[in-house]
Amino acid sequence: DAMVIQNPRYQVTQFGKPVTLSCSQTLNHNVMYWYQQKSSQAPKLLFHYYDKDFNNEADTPDNFQSRRPNTSFCFLDIRSPGLGDAAMYLCATSRGGQGFNEQFFGPGTRLTVL
Amino acid sequence: AQSVTQLGSHVSVSEGALVLLRCNYSSSVPPYLFWYVQYPNQGLQLLLKYTTGATLVKGINGFEAEFKKSETSFHLTKPSAHMSDAAEYFCAAEYGNKLVFGAGTILRVKS
Question: Looking at the predicted structure, is the pLDDT value of residue A45 above 80?
Answer without folding.
Answer: yes
